[in-house]
Amino acid sequence: MTAMAVMVFADGDAEAAEMEKAKVVATTNPVVKNSIGSARGEALFNETVEAIKVAPAAMVQTYLTKLDALARKIGSQDDKNFALAAVIAVATADGDVERAEADLLVRFKALLGATIDVPSAQG
Questions:
Q1: Please, which of 12, 45, 48, 71 could form a disulfide with 111 given CB 3.0 to 4.6 Å?
Q2: For residues 4 and 26, what is the distance between their CA atoms, to the nearest angstrom?
Q3: b/e code 29-38 from CB counts within 10 Å (16+ = b)
Q4: Cα–Cα dist 38/27, whole Å
C-alpha cells in the first residue's frame, strides 16, 4: 500500500485514475486480503495518502526510505514481481507513464530485486 501511495504522488499530482486503481489494488490484492485483510489494506493506503498530501516532496522521500526496509522483507521472487506489478498497474492507470513515475518504477524494481520489465516514460 505504501508503494502504491508513493507512486500516486511520483509526478507531483495524485491523478484520479491512479488513486482509483491504487484503492482497487489495495483492497483486492490477494496478498493483502490473505495477510492483513482488505479493510486494513485500504486504511493503510488512505493513511499514507493523507500523510503525503501534507508535504508531498518531503513525505514521498520519507516513505521511500521506509520502502527500502520493507522491500528487503519480501522473500520469494514471485512476491517481489507481484509487488512490482501492483505498482506498475497504478503508474499506468492514467494511460501514460511520466518520467518521475518511470524513474520510481526502476527504483522499486532494483529495491525489490524484481525480474519483470517496467514501462518506459512516454513523451
A1: 71
A2: 8
A3: beebeeeeee
A4: 4
Q: Note the pLDDT tens digit of each residue in 28-72.
A: 888 788 788 888 888 988 999 999 998 888 888 888 888 888 888
What is the model's pTM?
0.85
Residue with cell 520510481: 104
User: For the residues of the chain, what is the DSSP string, one character each?
Assistant: -HHHHHHHTTTSS--HHHHHHHHHHHHH-HHHHHHT-HHHHHHHHHHHHHHHHHSHHHHHHHHHHHHHHHHTT--SHHHHHHHHHHHHHHHTTTS---HHHHHHHHHHHHHHT--S--PPP--
Which amino acid would we find at residue 118? V
